[in-house]
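Exercise: predict the fold of this chain.
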Amino acid sequence: MGQERRISEGPAAPLRHAPAETGADLRSLARAWAALPQVSDLCASADGAWGFWCSSGLGEVQDVFAAPLGAPGAVEQLTFGSDHFGIRDVSADGQVLILAQSRNASGHDHLLLLDRRVGNRLHLLTPKQDNHRLTGGQLTRDGKAVIFATDYDYARQVPVDQGLVWRQDLTTGHRLCLARLPRPISRPPRLSPSGQRILLNVCTRTEGSGQIWVMNADGSGLREVFAMGETNDSRGDWLDEDRIAVVTDRMGRDEVGIFTLSAGTTQWLGGEPQVLPDRVVIGGKGGFACIAHRRGQAHALVFDAAGARVLPNLSGRRTLVPQAGLPNGGWLALAYDGDAPDAVVQVAPDGLCRGLTPRPASSRRHRAPLDFAWTSPDGRPVQGWLHEPEAPSRGLIVHLHDGPAAHSEDRASAEIGFWVQLGYTVLDANCRGSTGFGFAWRRAIAAEAGRDREQDDLRAGIEAVIQRGQAPGRVAVMGTGHGAISSWKALLRAPDLVTAALPVCGACGPADGVGSLAQIFRIRGHVLLILGAPDTLCERELQQGAVRTLTEAGPAHEVLVFDNEGHGIRRRANVETLLMRAALFVERALAAGPR
């Protein structure tokens, strides 16, 4: 029978020793990788004086940091939270920030105002809550109000199956509902440069599609302005009062262009197969950067009055991604690869880079991955990143991203780095359904419903690694969200290869094709089910059902539940605990073999 262990705030009880064959201090190694700095939510003040970002790993939770951009200066930590913070917007002078936070990372956000003028004081703007979604939080141009969207009606105090756009006065707290859309809004509302209009990236048609709507700042004139059919996804942001930079599916390809409101026309700038666009980042001089991908690696194309050009990468890292435009034509950007932690850099108009984040000393040993290719049984090429240890491999860990609307990159990861330094080979796979490889690959799972060719990709990748002779034929699969569901399936689809699965925040049900007792009875391998109790994407009923089914069916399993985590394990102490438990579980499971 399986074992269940519930983790609250702190890590597990100290372990006496690491796995015998490693000779390493497992706790120290897990602690070092749990402290890996990972950066997100980069933004800059409109005057170009300040850059801001969030970082996890430096403390127990994700906090907010700032640095001056005009001249070298010290990084300042603005928050010291007990729950993760995210940045939604910053005032023109960088003195006021709008932050988002949810209790235990549940995803049910509330908004806060951080005022740097009075010692980084925090002021609650919307109520702490656990029953609806809130997106956005952009300051109006006069700094007197904030714009956001919810699937909650504050007047009736009930969740609704609609998208409501709100304007909240920062002085009085009064909320005015500007618009109601027929479905919830998952992307932040965007004010035009003058603040006179609001752009909404919404889904009002087929699930997974996207359309662009516009309205006046007072809520009048709400209308759809851009759509590419019932199923295609379109999203964009303001270039000026009349033009919107867009990325969209068009005739079976991903394309980037500029849509002009007054004329109702689109100037197409590029697309597949030469350019695989993902999103746009508005620049500081009327242009924009298109973030595109090639074989799972990001780069930027800049479009402005001078034409189109590739943004040079002079950061010293293999990937440089602009996140916010600066008024001088430069960028605040994220630089990364597998060789070191994420870095925040200021990019000058000529491409020269100045690092803003120091590289912390650590016992972590980073190793660059290999760009690894293999062929699926149906002849389709597949790409992933192969991470190999310094010494002969102890086994193969397959790492699956939290997709399907995601992909794996050449970027430092606490989980992957830990496994590699512990002596395992890791295949970080971009099976079909992953983004970053164009329209057809992204839509392949839906187009091939019921065929499970994603699992064919996965098995072929495992076999290709084993055939290299770089990893013994002992395999565990670990993934979060959609990757967790794929790890369950791998135990059923490839029992001759896959001995263990570590699904994180992805408990399966019958709708996933894995959840029935009959299917679970077929599992010959071992399962470590890792859950966040407040997870709102993998709901408690689904979690409890998965644990109950495992217990009734009887495969060898353990359950690790974190009471203060949502969809993903992110608190530093919890990451440390997860890594230690996972290492001991995998060592036991691979040694025992299939049941």
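Check your answer against the key: The longest helix spans residues 572-592.
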